[in-house]
Amino acid sequence: MPIYSVYFSPTGGTKKVSDIISGAISESFEEIDLLKKGDFNKAFAKEDVCIISVPAFGGRVPQNACEKIKEFKANEARVALVAVFGNRAIDDTLVELYDLAVSVGFNVIAGIEAVAEHSLVRMYGSGRPNDDDREVLEAFAKKICEKLKCGDVTAPEFPGNRPYKDFKASSMSLVVDDACVNCKKCAIECPVNAIPMENVKTVDTDRCFSCMHCVSVCPVKARHNSPEVTSALEERLRDRCGGIKPNKLYI
User: How far apart are CA 201 and CA 196, in angstroms?
Assistant: First the structure.
């Protein structure tokens, strides 16, 4: 059975989780990177198995990822859904992803909550997924394989609410320092074209949704939050993002 790892991973944490799960299901799988630009009118077959992994952005599926998944033609392919969160909570991410997957014709057989480093404040969930997470996620993958072998396509119950919580995108006021070499990689790879090619030190705040991909891909680390912003975010998120949060399986 062909295996597809489908992921939206602006800072790399979601891809790490997706790689662990997909690799535990099969040594060979095809990747579909939802962060890339272009058409996503992929048609799957009924015997295909997909792992669709997205980060929880404010407890929701990122809109840019939603738009691309809507282009799929699932044709009753089996899918396991993964909501990756920065050590806070997934809120309505899994139930929204479930509704989206069903709307394009997937048979949803499992769901996972998985922890990765927080994309804005890396101290929360630092180093995750770690070795312990890998062990847990690989065990989850084995249970998914068992369900696939049984031909069971019943959907589990997912946490979350309908209607989903409101999502208010906010643009981060990033600092672009003198290390910038104007390579334009941030502008080229921005998934919503929020960074103008002619001036990469600016950003269209109406488009930016703080995915932090530009920070992640900068080859000279010229883009970052100011120390003041970072400190304020650390304090604001301390109660909600502190401690060690578990991964969870729904099957």
Answer: 8
Pair of tokens at residue 28: 């060979």
| Residue 229 CB burial class (10 angstroms; 0-12, 13-18, ≥19) | middle
Residue of 54, 89, 83, 15 lying closest to 237 (CA atoms): 89
d(CA 29, CA 22): 7
* Distance (Å, whole) CA 76 – CA 107: 5
User: Could you give the strand order of the β-sheet that contains 49-55, starting from the edge strand earlier in sequence?
Assistant: 30-33, 3-7, 49-55, 78-85, 107-115, 248-250
Q: Which of 48, 12, 49 is nearest to 33 (CA)?
A: 12
Burial 182-214 (b: 16+ CB within 10 A, else e): eeebbbebbbbebbeeeebeebeeeebbbbbbb
Bridge partners of residue 224, in order along the sequence = 175
For residue 157, what are the contacts with CB-CB under 8 A and spacing of at least 6?
A: 250
Among 155, 142, 143, CA closest to 99: 155
- Is the separation of the CB atoms in 84 and 39 below 8 Å? no
Measure Cα distances from 67 to 6, 103, 117 in Å.
14, 12, 25
pLDDT one-digit tens code per residue, 60-113: 999 999 999 999 999 999 999 999 999 999 999 999 999 999 999 999 999 999
CA distance 103 to 223: 38
CB 93 within 8 Å of CB 63 = no
- Read off the pTM: 0.95
